[in-house]
Amino acid sequence: MMKFVLASNNKKKISELCAILSSLLPDCEVLSLGDIGYTGDIEETGDTFEENSKIKASVPASLGYIGIADDSGLCVDALDGAPGVHSARYSGGGDAENIKKLLSELEDVPDEKRGAKFVCVMTAVFPDGKTVSARGEAHGVILHEKRGDDGFGYDPVFYSTDLNKTFAEAEPDEKNKVSHRGRALALFCEKLKGEIC
Ligand code: IMP
To answer: Residues with beta carbon inside 6 Å of ligand 1?
Structure first.
């Protein structure tokens, strides 16, 4: 039985990854940090999504497991890529405050300069230090106001140019097909399979 440890305690992420990995590799198990008795906080000190996902995945790897982690965020052209790796903590508040801050920073920015992308990087680190990493991106523009009730984070102001609607107006399946996370995960699984099969 091959054991992967996802460097997260987010149950939604763990069950999603569990379903995908076990369809790929019938004899595998996805554990959380809690499952292996790790209770520390991992500081995301990197400047890039690649660095942060590697920092997180290295923790289970240092304990003898295959560590897996993701890191994601929103990069806005007119803000030189901000909020980027700081997306979750952009305003110091929750999702509503983050969106409010983003819209106010972009107040005077015209439609044609409101391009943005969501980025997700998934990384696996093996106990011997070997690393497999995959990046997925979703492109769009930042609207002037929220549209739609689904999703989370910046979804209501992110108008996807793949879907021609915001991520908050999309069904979960529809979003997953074009999202940064869906794309990173598909590529990641392909690369991982090449590495371990
Ligand atoms: P993390 O990868 O869970 O640390 O997420 C980083 C932050 O980026 C989240 O808290 C959200 O603010 C933002 N983010 C990442 N992915 C999405 C998404 O699919 N929709 C909306 N916001 C997202």
So the answer is: 70-74, 87-88, 98, 118, 151-155, 167, 179, 181
Can you give the CATH number for the domain in which 100 is found? 3.90.950.10
Region of 99 on the Ramachandran plot (φ > 0 left; ψ -120 to 50 alpha; else beta): alpha
Split into its structural domains, the chain has a count of 1
Q: Give pLDDT tens digits for 71-94.
A: 999 999 999 999 999 999 999 999
116 against 196, higher pLDDT: 116
Q: Best mutation site among 149, 152, 158, 165 for ligand 1, i.e. most ligand atoms within 8 A of its Cβ?
A: 152
Residues forming the active site: 71
- The residue range of the domain holding 116 is 2-196
